Amino acid sequence: MITKIYQYICVVCIILGLSSCLDLDPKADLGDNLVWGKADNFQLFANQFYGWTRDFQQGANYASGVSDGPHSDYRSDLICTSSINTYSQGTNAIPATDGNFTTLYKRIYYTNLLLKNAESFDNQAAIAVPMGEALWFRAYLHFELVQLYGNAQLLTTPLDMDSERLYGPRDDRGAVIDQIVKDLQQAATLLPATPSAAGRLCKDAAQALLSRVALYEGTWQKFHNNNNGRAQELLGIAKSAAEAVMNSGNYSLFYNDQLGKDSYRYLFILEDGGQCNPAGLTKSANTEYIMTTRHRDGDKMALNITHAMLANVCYPTSKMANLYLCQDGLPVGKSKVFQGYAQATSEFMNRDNRMNGTMLMHGEKHWNNDGKWRTAWTDEDLANSLEANVRSNSGYQTRKWAVERKVDDYYEAMDYPVIRYAEVLLNYAEAVYEMSENISDADLDKSLNLVRLRVNPDMPKLSNSFVSSNGLNMREEIRRERSVELILEGFRIDDLKRWATAPTEMPQDQLGVKMKGTWFEANWSGQARQLNADGNIIMYTGRSWSDKLYLYPLPSDELQLNPQLGQNPGWE
Questions:
Q1: 125-157: per-residue pLDDT in tens?
Q2: For position 30, what pLDDT does the model report?
Q3: Quick count: other Cβ atoms within 10 Å of Cβ 193?
Q4: Which of 264, 272, 438, 544 could form a disulfide with 90, with the two C-beta atoms 3.0–4.6 Å apart?
Q5: CA-based R_g, the chain, Å
Q6: Do residues 108 and 140 touch, judged by C-beta distance below 8 A?
């Protein structure tokens, strides 16, 4: 594990200012007298941390909901692609190596290096911000380890390569979580109180991440270990942290009167270059993103985002489509305004507007970034548009993350939301509910209902009377809001794991549109499609789940280096 990492790091090279064994940012390769002798250089060293958060691209510790990776929605139950995802299918095996594992520990080393040297710096106030950033990122990286592997070696100091600590067992996840909480609480006291226009961390980012961590582990302890005392403690922390962000007044859900119900859709493609939306808004209008992975106009991305997400690439399932409520606030199985599946677009009618903000309807006019883009943002643009044809694969198609302006492939410049305010509001609602398994209407109104009604102003609020009078389940409705709001942002599989619902949800067949007796049956010719008993296309069947899948297996090379790490349960 870490033994291997530190063989690559060459600590002595960094301290003495010699050439590094890693391909490091130059700021990380300066000599001791240059890096740690001046306050400004603590900040220069900390700048490299900002490249470590989730992003659109694939690679170690990246991969959100947009490309495959440890947190990807492609590994969940709601999304599939043209090939089998072994993680979603439940057939992944122990890897020989794991770049996520090694990269996380390497990066933790650098946060500890800054914090260790900060201890002896004579002007603590001058380096408060980079210290806060190091604590935030140390917490972020350790949380990744807990989510992926459970127990983890907790490192709070940069260790020599021959340290016995590196050859020891992993620490219990509870101890790691306690340190994460401590780090984020301390970071909140060191980081600026006011959000930065440059996208730097602030106090709210520490509280927001704390709400995510404490909610995750609180529900894990509740549903996996029946540890109610520990769950209550953590859920209380999640509630308080989320409420601190809510009370700061620094954030609000993105909404623009001109964009109206399309505000949710355009939130994810705000850019600073060219005409990006009908209202002419740029990133400065985004009041929702708390922490982002930033991209500048003109910089090349690692992923061709629009082509990776628009139309016939990412396949939503009927399960995902059915999660969206109807405009009367009821699910499709209960709503009197649901229009059924008979026509190509009937199931989109009278639905949560986030459904069409995320998915394309058949025959709908839309735009992309090469050849068919918007110019004047008027009805004249309809003459220069694409027309959705969903008759392929699952019969559902996505549009989230797809830009509409003319821009070369790989040069979209929207930021990736590592944490956004909508998540914090949903964290609050869930934490409050799970603490006592009830939630007041007032708490719903100041959190979840803001998210629900952002682009659905006529939809009834979620309330206790609405739930009881319509035979709904409050927990299910809170989880539904989270699932549809955060779809394709890398939350779904982690949520199923912490809720302990993966054994029920993951083995289900992944289904496409309803074919039998619908427009699709008469108008979608071509290859024969396997249908289930209800007439839906079967995309993938034979999916399985076992409890070992709650955690990723440790790579075999790290276990050979340090057998005391121990393999995760079920992977032995």
A1: 999 999 999 999 999 999 999 999 999 999 999
A2: 47
A3: 10
A4: 544
A5: 24
A6: no
Distance (Å, rounded) from C-alpha 333 to C-alpha 349?
A: 14
Contact 187, 143 (CB under 8 A): no
Q: Are 238 and 424 in contact (CB under 8 A)?
A: no
Do the Cβ atoms of 74 and 68 come closer than 8 Å?
Answer: yes
CA dihedral sign of residues 353, 358, 362, 366: positive
Is residue 145 a contact partner of residue 216, using CB atoms and an 8 Å limit?
Answer: no
Q: Using alpha carbons only, what angle is made at residue 383 by residues 379 and 384, rounded to the nearest 5 degrees?
A: 105
Neighbours of 141 (CB within 10 A): 24
Where in 20-146 does DSSP place strands (E)? Answer: 79-80
Which H or E run contains 41?
Answer: helix 39-46
Give burial (CB, 10 Å; 0-12/13-18/19+) of 224.
Answer: middle
One DSSP character per residue, 183-218 reads: HHHHHHHHS-SSPPTT----HHHHHHHHHHHHHHHH
Q: Can you read off the two tokens belonging to residue 531?
A: 């249908």
Q: How far apart are CA 426 and CA 407, in angstroms?
A: 34
In this structure, which amino acid lies at residue 445? D
3-state secondary structure of 527: coil
Exposure string for 512-534, b = 16+ CB within 10 A, e = fewer: bbbbeebbbeeebeeeebebbee
Q: 531 pairs with which residues across the strands?
A: 537
Q: How far is CA 564 from the centre of its chain?
A: 32
Q: How far apart are the first and last CA of the chain?
A: 17
Q: Give residue for tokens 């699709």.
A: 520
Complete DSSP assignment for 438-479: ---HHHHHTTHHHHHHSS-TTSPPP-HHHHHHTT--HHHHHH
User: Please, are residues 434 and 237 in contact by the beta-carbon 8 Å criterion?
Assistant: no
Determine contact, residues 290/421, Cβ cutoff 8 Å: yes
| Cα separation, 245 vs 38, whole angstroms | 33
pLDDT surpasses 80 at 63: no
Place of tokens 């006529």: 458
Sequence-distant (6+) residues with CB within 8 A of 476 are: none
- Taking CA atoms, 327 is separated from 7, 333, 361, 420, in Å, by 58, 13, 17, 25
Q: Which amino acid is at 374?
A: R
Contact 555, 160 (CB under 8 A): no
Task: Note the pLDDT of residue 58.
Answer: 59
Whole-structure pTM value: 0.94
Contact 439/526 with Cβ under 8 angstroms? no
Among 187, 155, 185, 175, residue whose Cα is nearest residue 230: 175
Per-position DSSP letters for 353-409, written without gaps between them? HHHHHHEEPTT-EE--SSSS--SS-SGGGGGG-EE----STTS-EE-TT---S---T
Q: What CA–CA distance (Å, rounded) separates 279 from 75?
A: 35
Count of CB atoms within 10 A of residue 298's CB? 11
- Mean pLDDT of all residues in the chain? 91
